Model the fold of this input.
Amino acid sequence: MPTFSAPDGTELAYHAYGDGPPVICLPGGPTRVAYLGDLGGLPAHRRMIALDLRGTGGSARPDDVTSYRCDRMVEDVEALRAHLGLERMDLLAHCGGANLAVQYAARHPARVSRLALVTPSTKAVDIPISGELRRAVARLRAGEPWFPAAFAALEAIGAGRATEADWTAITPFTYGRWDSAAQAHHVAEGEDQNREAAAGFAAEGAFDPDVTRAALAAFGAPVLVLAGELDIAAPPAVMAEFATLFPNATLVVQPEAGHYPWLDAPDRFVKIIAEFLS
Done:
Protein backbone atom coordinates (compact mmCIF):
# COMPACT_ATOMS: atom_id res chain seq x y z
CA MET A 1 0.00 0.00 0.00
CA PRO A 2 1.57 3.34 -1.02
CA THR A 3 2.08 6.00 1.65
CA PHE A 4 3.17 9.61 1.98
CA SER A 5 3.82 12.05 4.80
CA ALA A 6 1.33 14.68 5.93
CA PRO A 7 2.70 18.12 6.84
CA ASP A 8 2.83 17.14 10.52
CA GLY A 9 4.76 13.96 9.73
CA THR A 10 1.84 11.54 10.08
CA GLU A 11 2.21 8.69 7.59
CA LEU A 12 -0.90 8.41 5.43
CA ALA A 13 -1.91 5.60 3.09
CA TYR A 14 -3.95 5.44 -0.07
CA HIS A 15 -5.29 2.79 -2.44
CA ALA A 16 -4.91 2.95 -6.21
CA TYR A 17 -7.10 1.04 -8.66
CA GLY A 18 -7.30 1.09 -12.45
CA ASP A 19 -5.57 3.15 -15.10
CA GLY A 20 -6.01 6.50 -16.77
CA PRO A 21 -6.25 10.00 -15.33
CA PRO A 22 -6.57 9.90 -11.54
CA VAL A 23 -9.54 10.93 -9.45
CA ILE A 24 -8.90 11.46 -5.75
CA CYS A 25 -11.65 9.91 -3.62
CA LEU A 26 -12.43 10.92 -0.04
CA PRO A 27 -14.49 8.56 2.13
CA GLY A 28 -17.40 9.61 4.31
CA GLY A 29 -15.45 10.32 7.45
CA PRO A 30 -12.57 9.07 9.58
CA THR A 31 -14.42 6.02 10.89
CA ARG A 32 -14.88 4.47 7.46
CA VAL A 33 -12.13 2.80 5.48
CA ALA A 34 -12.86 0.40 2.61
CA TYR A 35 -16.63 0.74 2.25
CA LEU A 36 -16.24 2.64 -1.03
CA GLY A 37 -14.97 -0.52 -2.70
CA ASP A 38 -14.29 0.34 -6.33
CA LEU A 39 -17.31 2.68 -6.49
CA GLY A 40 -19.28 0.32 -8.69
CA GLY A 41 -16.52 -0.14 -11.27
CA LEU A 42 -15.10 3.37 -11.61
CA PRO A 43 -11.51 2.06 -12.16
CA ALA A 44 -12.61 0.81 -15.59
CA HIS A 45 -12.76 4.49 -16.56
CA ARG A 46 -10.37 6.36 -14.26
CA ARG A 47 -7.51 5.63 -11.90
CA MET A 48 -9.18 5.73 -8.51
CA ILE A 49 -7.02 7.02 -5.65
CA ALA A 50 -8.83 6.43 -2.34
CA LEU A 51 -7.31 8.10 0.72
CA ASP A 52 -7.35 6.48 4.14
CA LEU A 53 -7.95 9.49 6.36
CA ARG A 54 -5.57 9.81 9.30
CA GLY A 55 -6.20 7.22 11.98
CA THR A 56 -8.05 4.84 9.64
CA GLY A 57 -7.11 1.89 7.46
CA GLY A 58 -3.41 1.94 6.65
CA SER A 59 -2.91 5.52 7.83
CA ALA A 60 -1.18 6.18 11.15
CA ARG A 61 -2.83 7.69 14.18
CA PRO A 62 -1.45 11.20 14.75
CA ASP A 63 0.32 12.30 17.91
CA ASP A 64 -1.91 15.39 18.03
CA VAL A 65 -5.54 14.25 18.30
CA THR A 66 -6.78 17.74 17.40
CA SER A 67 -5.45 17.10 13.89
CA TYR A 68 -8.49 14.86 13.31
CA ARG A 69 -10.48 18.07 12.85
CA CYS A 70 -11.93 18.31 9.36
CA ASP A 71 -10.49 21.72 8.51
CA ARG A 72 -7.02 20.61 9.57
CA MET A 73 -7.16 17.54 7.31
CA VAL A 74 -7.44 19.82 4.27
CA GLU A 75 -3.64 19.90 4.18
CA ASP A 76 -3.53 16.09 4.14
CA VAL A 77 -5.41 16.22 0.83
CA GLU A 78 -3.05 18.90 -0.45
CA ALA A 79 -0.07 16.73 0.54
CA LEU A 80 -1.54 13.81 -1.41
CA ARG A 81 -1.93 16.01 -4.50
CA ALA A 82 1.69 17.11 -4.23
CA HIS A 83 2.86 13.54 -3.62
CA LEU A 84 1.12 12.41 -6.81
CA GLY A 85 2.70 15.24 -8.76
CA LEU A 86 -0.62 16.66 -9.92
CA GLU A 87 -0.91 20.33 -10.84
CA ARG A 88 -4.69 20.04 -10.61
CA MET A 89 -6.89 17.12 -9.68
CA ASP A 90 -10.39 15.76 -10.02
CA LEU A 91 -11.83 15.28 -6.53
CA LEU A 92 -14.71 13.02 -5.50
CA ALA A 93 -16.13 12.83 -1.99
CA HIS A 94 -18.92 10.90 -0.35
CA CYS A 95 -21.07 11.91 2.63
CA GLY A 96 -18.92 13.42 5.41
CA GLY A 97 -15.94 13.51 3.08
CA ALA A 98 -17.73 16.32 1.24
CA ASN A 99 -17.11 18.55 4.26
CA LEU A 100 -13.40 18.00 3.70
CA ALA A 101 -13.67 18.35 -0.08
CA VAL A 102 -15.50 21.68 -0.06
CA GLN A 103 -13.07 23.11 2.49
CA TYR A 104 -10.22 21.96 0.26
CA ALA A 105 -11.89 23.59 -2.76
CA ALA A 106 -12.39 26.78 -0.74
CA ARG A 107 -8.73 26.90 0.36
CA HIS A 108 -7.09 25.57 -2.82
CA PRO A 109 -9.51 26.38 -5.67
CA ALA A 110 -6.83 26.45 -8.35
CA ARG A 111 -5.91 22.83 -7.56
CA VAL A 112 -9.35 21.36 -8.38
CA SER A 113 -10.31 20.56 -11.97
CA ARG A 114 -13.70 19.00 -11.17
CA LEU A 115 -15.51 18.33 -7.90
CA ALA A 116 -17.99 15.46 -7.52
CA LEU A 117 -20.01 15.36 -4.29
CA VAL A 118 -21.91 12.09 -3.77
CA THR A 119 -24.81 12.25 -1.29
CA PRO A 120 -22.81 14.87 0.61
CA SER A 121 -23.06 15.97 4.21
CA THR A 122 -23.94 19.66 4.55
CA LYS A 123 -22.25 20.49 7.87
CA ALA A 124 -19.46 22.55 6.33
CA VAL A 125 -22.00 24.82 4.62
CA ASP A 126 -24.67 24.69 7.35
CA ILE A 127 -27.71 23.57 5.35
CA PRO A 128 -30.17 22.08 7.85
CA ILE A 129 -32.27 19.00 7.07
CA SER A 130 -35.66 18.98 8.73
CA GLY A 131 -37.21 15.92 10.26
CA GLU A 132 -40.30 16.39 8.12
CA LEU A 133 -38.23 16.31 4.95
CA ARG A 134 -36.52 13.11 6.06
CA ARG A 135 -39.90 11.57 6.83
CA ALA A 136 -41.26 12.60 3.44
CA VAL A 137 -38.43 10.80 1.69
CA ALA A 138 -38.82 7.81 4.02
CA ARG A 139 -42.50 7.48 3.09
CA LEU A 140 -41.45 6.62 -0.45
CA ARG A 141 -40.51 3.22 1.00
CA ALA A 142 -43.95 2.55 2.49
CA GLY A 143 -44.39 -0.63 0.47
CA GLU A 144 -41.31 -2.31 1.94
CA PRO A 145 -41.91 -5.07 4.52
CA TRP A 146 -39.51 -3.49 7.01
CA PHE A 147 -41.08 -0.02 6.68
CA PRO A 148 -43.46 0.07 9.71
CA ALA A 149 -40.75 -0.70 12.28
CA ALA A 150 -38.18 1.52 10.56
CA PHE A 151 -40.55 4.47 10.24
CA ALA A 152 -41.62 4.17 13.88
CA ALA A 153 -37.96 4.29 14.84
CA LEU A 154 -37.44 7.35 12.64
CA GLU A 155 -40.34 9.06 14.40
CA ALA A 156 -38.82 8.24 17.78
CA ILE A 157 -35.49 9.72 16.71
CA GLY A 158 -37.21 12.87 15.47
CA ALA A 159 -39.05 13.20 18.78
CA GLY A 160 -35.83 12.98 20.76
CA ARG A 161 -36.64 9.68 22.46
CA ALA A 162 -34.46 7.35 20.41
CA THR A 163 -32.92 4.19 21.77
CA GLU A 164 -29.92 2.39 20.32
CA ALA A 165 -32.37 -0.07 18.80
CA ASP A 166 -34.11 2.78 16.94
CA TRP A 167 -30.85 3.85 15.28
CA THR A 168 -30.34 0.25 14.17
CA ALA A 169 -33.91 -0.07 12.93
CA ILE A 170 -33.64 2.83 10.44
CA THR A 171 -30.65 1.28 8.64
CA PRO A 172 -32.74 0.00 5.69
CA PHE A 173 -33.56 3.60 4.76
CA THR A 174 -29.87 4.08 3.96
CA TYR A 175 -29.96 1.73 0.98
CA GLY A 176 -32.05 1.73 -2.17
CA ARG A 177 -32.61 -2.01 -1.68
CA TRP A 178 -32.38 -3.67 1.72
CA ASP A 179 -31.10 -6.97 0.36
CA SER A 180 -28.28 -9.31 1.38
CA ALA A 181 -25.66 -7.18 -0.39
CA ALA A 182 -26.79 -4.06 1.46
CA GLN A 183 -26.84 -5.90 4.77
CA ALA A 184 -23.31 -7.22 4.20
CA HIS A 185 -22.12 -3.72 3.28
CA HIS A 186 -23.64 -2.30 6.46
CA VAL A 187 -21.82 -4.87 8.61
CA ALA A 188 -18.50 -4.26 6.85
CA GLU A 189 -18.85 -0.49 7.15
CA GLY A 190 -19.04 -0.78 10.92
CA GLU A 191 -15.67 -2.54 11.15
CA ASP A 192 -12.36 -0.89 12.05
CA GLN A 193 -13.91 2.13 13.74
CA ASN A 194 -11.76 4.89 15.26
CA ARG A 195 -14.09 6.63 17.69
CA GLU A 196 -11.48 9.20 18.67
CA ALA A 197 -11.14 10.27 15.03
CA ALA A 198 -14.90 10.37 14.57
CA ALA A 199 -15.30 12.62 17.59
CA GLY A 200 -12.51 14.91 16.45
CA PHE A 201 -13.66 15.28 12.84
CA ALA A 202 -16.47 17.71 13.66
CA ALA A 203 -14.96 19.20 16.84
CA GLU A 204 -15.46 22.86 17.64
CA GLY A 205 -13.80 25.01 14.99
CA ALA A 206 -13.92 22.34 12.27
CA PHE A 207 -16.37 24.34 10.16
CA ASP A 208 -16.81 28.00 9.27
CA PRO A 209 -19.86 27.94 6.99
CA ASP A 210 -19.88 31.66 6.16
CA VAL A 211 -16.27 31.61 5.00
CA THR A 212 -16.74 28.36 3.08
CA ARG A 213 -19.91 29.54 1.37
CA ALA A 214 -18.23 32.79 0.28
CA ALA A 215 -15.31 30.85 -1.21
CA LEU A 216 -17.56 28.36 -2.99
CA ALA A 217 -19.52 31.22 -4.57
CA ALA A 218 -16.30 32.11 -6.41
CA PHE A 219 -15.31 28.52 -7.20
CA GLY A 220 -15.54 28.27 -10.98
CA ALA A 221 -14.68 24.62 -11.66
CA PRO A 222 -17.46 22.20 -12.69
CA VAL A 223 -19.26 20.62 -9.73
CA LEU A 224 -21.54 17.58 -9.64
CA VAL A 225 -23.91 17.05 -6.73
CA LEU A 226 -25.25 13.50 -6.91
CA ALA A 227 -28.29 12.69 -4.80
CA GLY A 228 -30.11 9.43 -4.21
CA GLU A 229 -33.86 9.64 -4.74
CA LEU A 230 -34.49 7.60 -1.57
CA ASP A 231 -31.74 9.01 0.65
CA ILE A 232 -33.02 10.34 3.98
CA ALA A 233 -29.49 11.38 5.01
CA ALA A 234 -29.08 13.73 2.03
CA PRO A 235 -32.56 14.35 0.59
CA PRO A 236 -32.71 15.57 -3.01
CA ALA A 237 -34.29 18.89 -2.03
CA VAL A 238 -31.35 19.65 0.24
CA MET A 239 -28.90 18.54 -2.44
CA ALA A 240 -30.55 20.99 -4.82
CA GLU A 241 -29.93 23.77 -2.32
CA PHE A 242 -26.33 22.64 -1.92
CA ALA A 243 -25.81 22.88 -5.68
CA THR A 244 -26.89 26.54 -5.68
CA LEU A 245 -23.83 27.43 -3.59
CA PHE A 246 -21.62 26.95 -6.67
CA PRO A 247 -21.67 29.03 -9.87
CA ASN A 248 -21.10 25.98 -12.09
CA ALA A 249 -22.87 23.03 -10.48
CA THR A 250 -25.12 20.29 -11.83
CA LEU A 251 -27.55 18.31 -9.67
CA VAL A 252 -28.27 14.71 -10.65
CA VAL A 253 -30.79 12.62 -8.72
CA GLN A 254 -30.16 8.91 -9.20
CA PRO A 255 -33.53 7.08 -9.25
CA GLU A 256 -34.23 4.41 -6.64
CA ALA A 257 -30.89 5.03 -4.93
CA GLY A 258 -30.09 5.58 -1.30
CA HIS A 259 -27.00 6.92 0.44
CA TYR A 260 -24.66 4.54 -1.42
CA PRO A 261 -25.81 4.89 -5.05
CA TRP A 262 -22.91 2.86 -6.44
CA LEU A 263 -24.36 -0.18 -4.65
CA ASP A 264 -27.95 0.34 -5.81
CA ALA A 265 -27.21 0.68 -9.53
CA PRO A 266 -23.47 0.44 -10.23
CA ASP A 267 -23.67 0.90 -14.00
CA ARG A 268 -25.89 3.95 -13.73
CA PHE A 269 -23.71 5.49 -11.01
CA VAL A 270 -20.47 4.95 -12.92
CA LYS A 271 -21.99 6.36 -16.10
CA ILE A 272 -22.96 9.56 -14.26
CA ILE A 273 -19.55 9.97 -12.65
CA ALA A 274 -17.51 8.99 -15.72
CA GLU A 275 -19.42 11.39 -17.97
CA PHE A 276 -18.95 14.23 -15.49
CA LEU A 277 -15.24 13.58 -15.09
CA SER A 278 -14.71 13.35 -18.84
Remarks:
- Strands lie at 3-5, 11-17, 22-26, 47-51, 89-94, 112-118, 223-228, 249-254.
- The first helix runs from residue 74 to 84.
- The chain has a mean pLDDT of 95.
